[in-house]
Amino acid sequence: MTSAILAPGYGGTADQPLLRKLAARLETDGIATSRITFSPQRPSRGYATEKQELRAARDALVARAGAPLALIGRSFGGRMCAFLAAEEPPDALVILGHPISPPDRHRPADEAALLGITCPTLVVQGDRDELGPLAVLERIAGQNPHIDLMVLRGAGHDYGAHEAEAIDAAARWLGSVLRP
User: Fold this and answer.
1) What is the pTM of this model?
2) Which CATH number describes the domain made up of 2-178?
């Protein structure tokens, strides 16, 4: 069986609506899921706590449902999944709205993590996402052949009316990557 860990955006929980909907879709498609909530504190130094929480969830899910395994993260959760994937590549990575470069906050560590990714990766990004300018992600995807960039026209960081399209794109892509 295939498995997927789903991580929420900053301050979100395992019950974040987008994660619930995506998990239900993946379960219907035969992919076992586990949704996590990060510790309710400020991010740890070097995101050590967040990465350890992802590792623990990953290890528990693989022990229960097996591999291959995907890491899926929404916004902040996507950043954390990318950092872990750069160190310990999963079988696939999906980032739903990467806040790669919020206004006046260049994130070189985030760029380095994405450039170093060696697993199949999908980034689903709105073309109006003020936290993740498309030009930055297009440049990175152009330098890393493991990254597929799916653009949601007319969508901002929260996807809005395009949420179902993002869920469908992620589920279809995972199905094609995780299944022989």
Assistant:
1) 0.96
2) 3.40.50.1820
